[in-house]
Amino acid sequence: MNKKLQKRFIAGAVCPQCAAMDTLIMFKENDEEYRECVDCGFKDKLIFKSQMGELTTRVNKTEEDIKNETQVVKLVDINSKK
What we know:
Blueprint: E1 7-9, E2 24-29, E3 32-37, E4 43-45, H1 63-68
Antiparallel strand pairs: 1-2, 2-3, 3-4
């Protein structure tokens, strides 16, 4: 099966070789992603580092996480005069 190569522009990207803006296209070839400048012909393979895990926040905690969480409580004497 011969599939047509789909190329798309990367908006706002600057070419690392000629510094032209909005001239880079991105495409996938043999399951690898590449970028290429349509002005100067610069081409390189894009290598993405593995995704980091999601940061734990109060929104994505489970009920079990909340139950096991240690919380510090500070008792304040409202009648105390300093």
